[in-house]
Design a protein that fits this description.
Layout (H helix, E strand, L loop, with lengths): L3 E2 L3 E6 L3 E6 L8 E5 L3 E4 L19 E2 L7 E2 L2 H6 L1 H13 L8 H16 L29 H14 L9 H14 E6 L4 E7 L7 E2 L5 E6 L2 E6 L10 E2 L8 H12 L6 H12 L2 H24 L4 H15 L8 H16 L3 H18 L5 H17 L3 H18 L5 H15 L1
Parallel strand pairs: 10-13
Antiparallel strand pairs: 1-4, 2-3, 4-12, 5-9, 6-7, 8-9, 11-12
Helix pairs in contact: 2-3, 3-4, 4-5, 8-9, 8-10, 9-10, 10-11, 11-12, 12-13, 13-14
Length: 434
Amino acid sequence: MATIIHPGIEVFLAERRGRGVRATQAIRSGTCLVREQPFAHVLLEHERERRCEYCLLRREKLQKCGSCKDVCYCSNDCQIAAYKSHQYECRIKKKNKQQSLPEWTAARVMIQILCVKQKKKRGTNPTPGISCSFPLLPSQLCDGPEGLKSAEDAVKCLEDYVGTTDLPGWDHKSLLKLNEKLSVNSFCLYDEGKRSEIGDVLYTRSAVFNHNCEPNCAFIYNGKTMEIRSLRDIQPGEECFIHYVNVLQTVNVRRKKLYDNYRFWCECLRCKRELKILADTAIGDRLKLEETEAKAQTFLAKIDKEFDENYYKMLETCETGLDAVQNDLDTTNPHMAQLHVRTQEACIGLQKWKAAVKSGMEIIRACKTHLLPTDPILGFHLWRVAKIQAVTLNQPIAARDLLQQAIDVMSIGYGSTHPMTMEAKELLGSIIDQ
């Protein structure tokens, strides 16, 4: 897909936030503002032998690169298409095939960027019809926070692995600067069909959008193509926001993650509103709420750290966590929603379909409470529950209303031609025809 930038947006200097994107004309909800291909992308380690490195599709049979014997592709066409971006990394991997790289994901993104610079594959001249105020190269992106140990570790690991002779024109300082830029400008790459993280990716134009916990735009993926879409009508002069962290979380969790990863404390209207509610809560009730939410956070951290597709143990911990906090937290509390997200994942893995639907309905209630009614996250959870009801449980009547809701949301958040929206429409059509 070709790169698209809507003619009704521009890059501007936002007070206290650096560069941002704003509307120069009225924009209707469901409008694609930006569509672009990644400058660099890599799969997470546990996904590298499950998915094609180029198209990202999950396949049972993959073929490894004949030279480095490490990167996998689903076809010769994908391998040929990936050659320009892989050849530099391939040579390095082949030379160091007996070594491992602990900070591999971050280092691989840097290696791909070095490859682009060496081969001059992507110039600084804008594509005709695309605003030149949007950055095209990583060097044109805003700087990240200095002094991060993770950045120092990643660069040192890269230097030890690649060797200085294979890094012409790049010294330690410039590599550190590059990694710092990546720390605040890269995105998590998602499989939209599961809303699961599969890799890290850099989009230079989309990186200019600023964060808001109540965003008027959202980014979605179609394979490795990213789109940023408006979730509601946007007026001329209004800034266009996306979210940097999962906004289905409490205000304190969101703000801490934003500070830890991006070095700013969010002061959006939603954060101010929720902080005021906390401040107005009686001290005893607030302390009890904080204690219960901290307990829920402990369970969530345990689940995410210890259980990789061990669904029996995952479900057991989820149920223990829900039992421990459900009497003291509202059913739409974001911590409850996150516990239900993990519970549903475990139930799907164990084919406990009725329990998966039950947790899914709780997630939907939380999404409708905390997110815009057109948010693709809401659309995804509506679609997931409806699909289980219609296909697995053979409950087409129960699924019909949820499917229609999902399509209404997804047509805005994902777009009417996105594969997930098309699948939902096809499923609803089959139910109506019965």
